[in-house]
SMI1-KNR4 cell-wall
Amino acid sequence: MEWRKNETPANSSIIRDIEQKLGICFPADYLQVVKDSHGKQPTPNVIDFGGLQEKVFGSLLSFEEGCPVNLWFTYKSVKDVLPKKVIPFGCDPFGNLYCFDYRKSEDPTIVYWYHEADRITKVCDTFTELEGMFYEPEGIEEEVEKVLRLMEENEKNNFDSK
């Protein structure tokens, strides 16, 4: 798996400031990745956990001010509905969040917060483990080819009927 790179590396003083405000230390494996890939997506980006299949990891939250997926802004937006010591670090395309769960330890586990049901599901124990869980769904190439064929047929049918 691979993370897309951000043109602007995360500012380490902003990261330390956020850690201080939250009273936590982000895991070292996460910090290694987020420095250059904050606000970016992994490839592949599909994951299974807790009985849920083919969930999408949209992107890491960014440390850039003004970014729509900014970590601090996201945290402030959901802090009253998330349990204390559950800190978002990633999102999916549907408004759900991947979070560090510090409730039991200073070494957080990874959890998924499904916002519509206000439900938290454990994903895995570490950020490194999370990275190893991403995969490309089988059959995706066939589905793309099928859609392209249908589009070509529609174009041909539209052209032939003129």
